[in-house]
Design goal:
This protein has about 425 residues and is of the alpha+beta class. The protein has a single domain, classed as Beta-lactamase. Helices cover about 30% and strands about 15% of the residues. The protein is built from 12 helices and 14 strands. It has helices at about 45-55, 100-115, 125, 140-145, 165-175, 185-195, 210-225, 225-240, 285-290, 295-305, 315-320, 385-400; strands at about 10, 60-70, 70-80, 95, 260-265, 275, 295, 325, 335, 340-345, 350-360, 360-365, 370-380, 410-415. The strands form 4 sheets. Strands 3-2-13-12-11-10-9-8 form an 8-stranded antiparallel sheet. Strand 11 (about 350-360) and strand 12 (about 360-365) form a beta hairpin. Helix 1 packs antiparallel against helix 12, helix 2 packs across helix 7 and helix 6 (about 185-195) packs across helix 7.
Length: about 425
């Protein structure tokens, strides 16, 4: 919703992160809810704990993470779940997963491709006649890999949300219920097609949430069921992801969860600011592009099942992992985007996954094939702090996968 935050962070290359100061160990990992038959190993995890604490040390209210591999599960938290009470964050709590939803949506679309009900290279017009101008030249594949060229009204200035640094405007918008109003997929698409596309279909990559809004509409058109119902039946229930759900028009988060915040400037000095609690909000605008609420354990189980071949055939997994380059400021930063799955190059090799971000919440989900890493952060602060928290998230991924904070570069991006 804020510019370039409605998907979350992706590393452009391995991050080079120096912790600002020595950080004490967080101690043993929390037991939480492990998958049946999976041992929860208690390890000191000093390096991981330090990398996690670096995120809250950079100003985030909380950071929780889980690392899952053949040795078991490491899970820990840093910071507080609620600034008002100061209660420690729970690593087993729920959070808004943002654009990680896209991988669930893409998996469902690809299952329908495997059933012969959707064609990857068929035009959008075939499934949604008259909905998208030039829909006869935009394919399902181009929606999946963000090469459609469609303008994104959820991230761009002049779209559905205010894009201003004026705290008075933002405060008034929040006070008037800007974050709790419902926005339908039809409204998102209408706002997109009212604007000229960014480029001809297939010309290049440009992240746009409307691509996945349209994919959710296609799922409904070919199955007769809403995307949430279809994803629940095909993925959530079979995998036993009981902590994961689609909130629809509900504005709360069920069960234990950290609170999310939006920092507002109250004066010229850096200390003149307040943290607005934005936990209660509507994510109807994010729909099949970013609506999901989940847990660390559930996301890692999903990633393990997906990369392990339990949800898609080998041929469809090859399609999903076939990436196009992501450009940033004219550079190719070592990041590729496939069909709802990004390929991220760390110092020790590639990982596949996605990130997510909605107001108050930032999330990560990545896998090397043998190891899965999920993370949720409740960020706050000014632009400098946001950048530092983003870099610290990258540092945690480097530590979790590669066992080092020292990588080959220092550029970290947000997808959307």
């Amino acid at each position: 919703m804020t510019r370039r935050t409605v998907s979350a962070m992706v590393a452009a290359a391995a991050v080079c992160l120096a912790l600002a100061a020595p950080v004490a160990s967080a101690g043993a990992a929390e037991s939480g809810s492990a998958a049946p038959g999976t041992a929860v190993v208690r390890v000191e995890g000093e390096a991981r704990s330090a990398a996690l604490k670096a995120v809250t040390g950079a100003g985030a209210a909380s950071a929780i993470a889980e690392v899952r591999d053949e040795d078991g599960v490491w899970r820990a938290g840093s910071g507080v779940s609620d600034l008002a009470s100061g209660a420690p964050v729970r690593a087993d709590g729920r959070f808004r997963a943002g654009s990680i939803t896209k991988t669930f949506t893409s998996t469902t679309v690809l299952q329908l491709v495997g059933e012969g009900r959707i064609g990857l290279d068929e035009p959008v017009e075939r499934y949604l006649p008259g909905v998208v101008p030039n829909g006869g030249h935009i394919t399902v594949r181009q929606l999946l890999n963000h090469s459609s060229g469609l303008w994104d009204p959820t991230n761009e200035e002049g779209g559905l949300f205010p894009h201003t640094t004026d705290p008075v405007v933002i405060r008034d918008w929040l006070d008037q219920g800007g974050l709790t109003r419902s926005i339908t997929p039809v409204q998102v698409v209408a706002a997109s097609v009212a604007h000229a596309p960014n480029f001809p279909p297939g010309a290049k990559f440009s992240y746009s949430n409307v691509n996945y809004t349209l994919l959710g509409m296609i799922i409904e058109r070919v199955t007769g069921h809403g995307y949430a119902q279809e994803i629940t039946a095909r993925i959530l229930r079979p995998l036993g992801l009981t902590g994961t759900y689609f909130p629809g028009a509900a504005t709360d988060i069920r069960g234990p969860h950290a609170h999310g915040y939006w920092t507002l400037a109250e004066g010229p000095a850096p200390e003149d600011r307040s943290d607005r609690d934005v936990t209660v909000s509507s994510v109807t605008w994010a729909n099949s592009a970013g609506e999901l609420i989940s847990t660390l354990a559930d996301l890692n189980r999903f990633e393990q099942a997906l990369l392990g071949g339990r949800l898609l055939s080998p041929q469809l997994m090859r399609e999903m992992k076939t990436t196009i380059p992501v450009q940033a400021d004219g550079r190719l930063p070592g990041l590729g985007y496939g069909l709802g799955l990004a390929r991220l190059q760390l110092s020790c090799g590639p990982v596949y996954g996605h990130d997510g971000g909605v107001p108050g919440f930032s999330s990560q989900l990545w896998s090397s094939g043998t190891r899965q890493v999920a993370m949720s952060v409740t960020s706050r602060g000014d632009a400098v702090q946001a950048s530092a928290q983003l870099a610290a998230q990258g540092g945690f991924l480097e530590e979790a996968f590669c066992g080092t904070h020292q990588g080959g570069g220092d550029t970290w991006l947000k997808l959307g």
